[in-house]
Amino acid sequence: MSTITLIISPYHTGLHAHRVGKGPHHILSQNLLAQLTSLGLNIETYEIPRVDDFEGEIGRSFEVMRRTSLAVSEAVEKGNWPLVLSGNCMASVAVACGLEHAQAQAQGQKKGGRGKLGFIYFDSHDDLDSPDVNENGYFDAMGLSMLRGESWKLLMNTVPGYDPESPFDYRSNKNRFLYVGLRDQSELQRERVVEAGMDSIWGGNLNPPDGLRG
Fold first, then answer.
1. CB of 172 closer than 8 Å to CB of 108
2. Domain residue limits, the chain
3. Residue 87 has what DSSP assignment?
4. Which residue stretches, if any, does this entry annotate as coiled coil (predicted)?
5. Which end of the chain has less Cβ packing within 10 Å, N or C?
6. Confidence band (pLDDT; 50, 70, 90) for 106?
């Protein structure tokens, strides 16, 4: 019988149950566990401990990512399927690093598993901002630029499974990444997605910026 490790991360900007951080507990309140077990699945649950003692939005958010990465890695090493309920898009960073960490552990490596992951990213936002081009001050918009080694490099090196030497470089592995539903973006953000070479299915009536292909 298959086992799912349900990893609950009820955080937004590192604050517990703040705004969209209430989402994971709300989903659980809708009988999620009962519905999963009715399908014949074994469910183990783990909730990311509070990070109140860490400094500021950035410090708290990175600690949530570190803990989520380890939780994902531990689930995979047990042969379980990690399912993450998160209030924040930064979970994508942690899940990717956790999967790479598990692969590295299995191969006896210290760093990540050399970019074996593939992504299908359903989102109206691209999360590809870096601090230098961010227009809205939203830290949560930078996750994929972190994975690509473009931003927050020192702190990213503290996330288990992250390897700056290329495993998340989708410029050379663009066939492993597909955006689906992109629509809520500025012109600059749309141009960055296309210039990064990521395959995209644009949402609504959007087309790639003039002169560029996605």
1. no
2. 1-88, 112-214
3. S
4. none
5. N
6. confident
